[in-house]
Design brief:
The protein is α+β, with helices and mostly antiparallel strands and 541 residues long. Helix content is 54%, strand content 20%. Strand 11 and strand 12 form a beta hairpin. The longest helix has 51 residues. It starts with a helix and ends in a 5-residue tail after the last strand.
Length: 541
């Protein structure tokens, strides 16, 4: 715990700033204190040295007085008086031959070269010569006490420390208060920023400070930023909730729709609905979201009726970058699916997001459409092809014959003696005759021979790439077949015949309209020749 506190202090700007100011003020006061102690101590030392030199001078003058040469007791008395006035720790007087005349205390054998108040014995030892005129009378060895100076220096250091501490506290207090005032909002701001960085936007924001300094402006700007973040968060939350609701609604809607929908990016499936699973026979346990596109196509290829056609269709869809035209594929179970697809781009066409493909079951619609097409191309009475289909097939066969150089034969016939049946027995009986002839003739034709009803009792055949002899055989067979039929209406037996005209492409005509006109003319020529026969029309186009 202490290490964590120390670590946090090391990284605290407030701690670093306070420590820096403490060091600056402390070093400044220490320098002042050291300078002051040094100067005062030097003063004391110089004063002591001055006093010592004065004392030495006076002592030398006293000892050089002739009175003391004759009276040793008086000299000793004088020495005692001098010692009492000087702060001496030892004293020794020797005459000129080295005999000790007077001694007080233990004289230190070492002579100090300089005055030092920090001596361990607290004594400054020196030797002074006693000279009278030019004559050396003797020497004085004495030790001057230095403990008073050391004590004065110690007292000075203590007092200076107290004074320095007082001024240090007095100077640091406003600094500390100012640092606290400056750093307190920054610390709160830092805590708030950390909480906001963690996503806690509801953490209280520091209160704005009075003033226009940088810290106040920073807090005001931070408050504005926090309010903007909160607004953005609330807006994003609202948008996310709306998007979630829309997505839920869309997913529910797509899940209930009978249309199969998938959305895929370049590599894998991002979405599919229930209808798509059902169409392509996926199990509910199959995980389609995230499935690779190739794996999906491989599975779908096993469900469709013709895999190669399906893959070619998908390739055409993927090659398109716009809404595709509807395409149809057949499944093995007989269903028919219509496919529509389009690409999905990012906003402003900034990139490709994926492609959606819609599969719609068109089985019933195709059946209805096929029935409608059949009804549109088949005669409602006889169920054979009608005039509309005849015109389409005639143009198609002539265009094909023009390309490959083949031939087309048009056989047209109508019924002989058909009008009296309608007049005598009614149109219902006439319809019976038409149906019976259509069914009978159609049943005798080969696969490439097609019978059309192109008018009331008019019929036609189209024969592709046949010779005149083959055409004659078919025409004769139809004429005889119609002639062989008989109809019983309320005990009355009726018979009909047919007159047929034949025109050929390109021998007789090179356009459908001309070919049709020449065949019609040949048919009337057969009637004029006695009916129940066929005639080739050889008039050039």
């Amino acid at each position: 715990m202490f290490s964590n506190l120390l670590q946090s202090c090391r990284h605290s700007i407030q701690f670093k700033l306070f420590l820096s100011l403490t060091l600056i003020v402390g070093l400044s006061l220490a320098a002042i204190l050291v300078s002051q102690v040094y100067l005062v101590q030097e003063y004391f030392v110089r004063q002591a040295e001055s006093n010592l030199r004065s004392s030495n001078y006076l002592l030398s003058r006293v000892l050089a007085d002739p009175i003391f040469e004759r009276d040793l007791v008086l000299l000793q008395s004088r020495m005692i008086d001098i010692q009492s006035k000087l702060p001496l720790c030892n004293f020794q007087l020797k005459d000129n031959i080295g005999s000790v005349v007077y001694k007080v205390g233990e004289v230190h054998p070492k002579i100090d070269t300089s005055f030092n108040s920090s001596n361990p014995d607290h004594c400054y030892n020196t030797v002074l010569p006693v000279i009278h005129g030019d004559q050396l009378l003797g020497t004085v060895r004495m030790g001057v006490r230095t403990d008073d100076i050391a004590q004065a220096r110690s007292n000075l250091i203590q007092e200076s420390l107290f004074v320095a501490l007082f001024w240090f506290t007095l100077l640091m207090l406003p600094f500390f208060i100012q640092i606290r005032r400056l750093m307190s909002p920054l610390v709160n701001l830092s805590k708030t920023a950390q909480e906001i960085a963690k996503g806690n936007l509801d953490y209280p924001v520091p209160i704005s400070l009075r003033g226009k300094d940088e810290v106040s402006q920073l807090i005001s700007s931070f408050q504005g930023m926090a309010q903007t973040l909160i607004r953005n968060r609330d807006e994003q939350a609202a948008n996310l909730e709306a998007l979630k609701n829309e997505k839920s609604t869309l997913s529910t809607l797509l899940a209930t729709m009978p249309i199969g929908v998938i959305f895929a990016d370049r590599t894998q499936i991002q979405y599919c609905n229930v209808a798509f699973r059902r169409m392509f026979q996926f199990d509910q346990s199959d995980q389609l979201i995230g499935m690779k596109n190739d794996a999906l196509l491989l599975h779908a290829g096993q469900v469709v009726a013709e895999a190669d056609i399906f893959l070619r269709t998908i390739a055409e869809i993927l090659a398109s970058r716009k809404l595709t035209e509807p395409k149809f594929i057949s499944l093995k179970d007989g269903r028919i699916l219509r496919i529509i697809s389009n690409v999905v781009l990012a906003p402003n066409n900034s990139g490709y997001l994926g492609r959606f493909i819609i599969f719609e079951d068109q089985t019933e619609e195709q059946k209805v459409l096929l029935t409608a097409e059949l009804n549109a191309e088949h005669d409602s009475l006889t169920s054979i092809f009608n005039r509309r289909r005849f015109d389409l097939d005639l143009e198609r066969l002539i265009a094909q014959a023009e390309r490959d150089g083949s031939r087309v034969a048009l056989l047209m016939f109508d019924l002989d003696d058909f009008k009296p049946i309608n007049d005598l027995h009614g149109h219902i009986c006439g319809d019976v005759v038409l149906k019976q002839i259509a069914q009978t003739v159609s049943s005798q034709l080969r696969r490439n021979e097609v019978l059309y009803r192109i008018g009331g009792d008019e019929f036609a055949l189209l024969l592709n790439n046949t010779s005149d002899d083959e055409v004659s055989i078919v025409a004769d067979r139809i004429v005889r077949l119609v002639q062989s039929l008989s109809f019983n209406f309320n005990g009355t037996v009726e018979k009909v015949g047919c007159s047929m005209g034949i025109a050929r492409y390109p021998g007789d005509a090179i356009t459908p309209a001309t070919l049709l006109r020449l065949a019609d003319q040949a048919m009337y020529e057969a009637k004029n020749l006695g009916k129940s026969q066929f005639v080739f029309r050889r008039t050039p186009a």
